[in-house]
Amino acid sequence: MSVNLYRAFSQDDPRLDSREDELFMTIESLRCELLEVAQQRSLSDRAVVELSERLDGYILLAQNRMMESLRSRKAGVAHSKASQRITNNHTTLPQ
What we know:
Helices cover 87% and strands 0% of the residues. The termini are far apart. It is built from 3 helices and no strands. Helix 1 packs antiparallel against helix 2 and helix 2 packs antiparallel against helix 3. The protein is an all-alpha fold.
């Protein structure tokens, strides 16, 4: 499900899809591993804390990539709207 969520932000560049898929597969794998280890050990156990920190790092990376994608999309939409206004203004000006 996470992969599909991120795909909504990266459809413009198919080359990025495999890297995002790999990132989310890593996140899901670490999440499952963390759940297994946490069920067997104390939450303050070094292995649990280290897995949690690794998972946090990958989640932050994914969030940063999503935010960058959103910012670039917003910038593209704003640029597109400005271009459209300029084009519309040029067509309505007297020749």
